[in-house]
Amino acid sequence: xxxxxxxxxxxxxxxxxxLAGRDREVDAFEIVLERISRGRPERSLxxxxxxxxxxxxLLNTLRSEAITRQWGTGKIEARPDQSLRxxxxxxxxxxxxxxxxxxxxxxxxxxxxxxxKAFSVRSADAAGKxxxxxxxxARWQPGIDVPAAVGRADSGDIEIDLVELFTDAAALAAxxxxxxxxxxxxxxxxxxxxxxxxxxxxHELSQTGxxxxxxxxxxxxxxxxxxxxxxxxxxLFRYQRIDRLDRLAAxxxxxxxxxxxxxxxxxxxLDALYEASGGYPYFVQAxxxxxxxHAPRSPITAADVRVAAPEAEAELAVGFFGSRYExxxxxxxxxxxxxxxxDAAADADAPVPTAEVARALGRKPASLSPAxxxxxxxxxxxxxxxxxxxxxxxxxxxxxxxxxxxx
Length: 407
Hints:
- Residues 1-21 are annotated as: Disordered.
- InterPro entries: AAA_16 (IPR041664), Cyt_c-like_dom (IPR009056), P-loop_NTPase (IPR027417).
- Keywords: ATP-binding, Heme, Iron, Metal-binding, Nucleotide-binding.
- GO terms for molecular function: ATP binding.
- By secondary structure, the chain is of the alpha/beta class.
- The protein has 3 domains: 3-10 and 245-324, Helicase, Ruva Protein, domain 3; 23-241, Rossmann fold, CATH 3.40.50; 328-402, Winged helix-like DNA-binding domain superfamily/Winged helix DNA-binding domain (Arc Repressor Mutant, subunit A, Orthogonal Bundle).
- It is built from 17 helices and 8 strands.
- Strands 2-3-4-1-5 form a 5-stranded parallel β-sheet, sandwiched between helices. A 3-stranded antiparallel β-sheet has the order 6-8-7.
- Helix 14 crosses helix 15 (354-361).
- Residues 127-139 have low confidence and may be disordered.
């Protein structure tokens, strides 16, 4: 079939042609938006799951829902060792600009922009005092054409400042009977102080009923990080685990886009595609794309899937698995290979005990702590429960077992 008409889209954060299996999450978010708009109390939201399950796609979809309801929105991607101040100021600046046309008194918008500027400029001041990128900090400006506020969100204490910033931004949204939604991808990469500040700010907003919510997305251990920062975070956020698609949703993700192009799948082809992809949305798109390109005609058969599978696997090996494997040091690769060997029986990327990893390598657990901690920081593994580790990428253990041994 014509590759130009291929409807499948395997890509990082790229919305698939058919967003299957996420209706429940979207419907629940619409209720949250409506409740907040009516002054009802609601919690902020945290999406968790492995790589490739579509967290970023869902995050973008939820943002689109908020925009449709004329909410102010902003989105950031957290990064390790990066302060929250600049990105959150930029996201709130965008949200306020979206609300500005609905505000009758422009001075109120300027007041909030002044607070945002004070909050963000405080980051540059702090960098200069530490001697970190002093000249860049001095030159950097947030692009807000109003004077920075004085005495508001500029104390230097991120927890105090973020509460004040969110409170003022939420008050502006309330004045036009709407709200603000801030979307944070890779939320597990926030620094400890920023996590604490975010929890404190959301806690304050929930108590006052202010119309500002945070929608975060991150790896499965994100709830544990939030709980370690503030014990009340277990009750502060609504947690939604985003997992692989069930069989009906995975079939819909393949069949619906093909049908719009006048193409059908045989039942056995869908069986083979689900077995290969495991229902993970990224893999569904990758195998669907390769199968389309290899199939000579409609309907697509199981034989077409078998012919195309090696190409899909080769592409995943380079772009999805290989790029992550290359980021690891030799010691970290050795640790991951030991994990993969322990997971061989189940072949399901199940958590494995760290003590068993150490035993497989003939080492003491304490001597492996640097490699384990570095892998967690790089987002290659996570520790959902004390004494266990698991891969953040589905099928990664299977990929590692297919690679030649390290010499």
